[in-house]
């Protein structure tokens, strides 16, 4: 999972994020610690994690959980933290399957997506998310928040 996380970040963010962030020594080790905690630490027991595979090959990862940045007036009950699929598998249905595995399709939810990242933003719009006008910069990458009302 850590390897997929690092490699898909590099595919997704190369040119948007500084190379020294993407290529730093220990990047995969830090993602390994992240995933180990996400899976084993009781503090994260409410998180939902899923992986996508084709045969024996892991091709995508996802994680969602309780909203981390929702204000008192937030209308969503879940937040997508991670959803990455190797570019070679974009359009295969893996991303939609991962999203549905970690957030029920009718559940109100929020997520942050890189801006610009038209492909990812179109994917999330297809799944009922829309920008809410909130933006931020994280690790030098502009991001917008997208939300989905419950059905």
Structure overview:
- It is globular and about 40 Å long.
- With 151 residues, it is α+β, with helices and mostly antiparallel strands.
- The protein has a single domain (2-148), classed as 3-Layer(aba) Sandwich (Aminopeptidase), CATH 3.40.630.
- Helix 4 links the parallel strand 3 and strand 4 (109-114).
- The chain has a six-stranded mixed β-sheet, with helices on both faces.
- Helix 1 (2-13) crosses helix 3.
- The chain contains five helices and six strands, in the order H-H-H-E-E-E-H-E-H-E-E.
- It is 32% helix and 31% strand.
Structure described in brief:
The chain has 151 residues and is of the alpha+beta class.
Features of the shown structure:
GNAT_dom, 151 residues, globular, Aminopeptidase, transferase, acyltransferase activity, transferring groups other than amino-acyl groups, alpha+beta, six-stranded mixed sheet
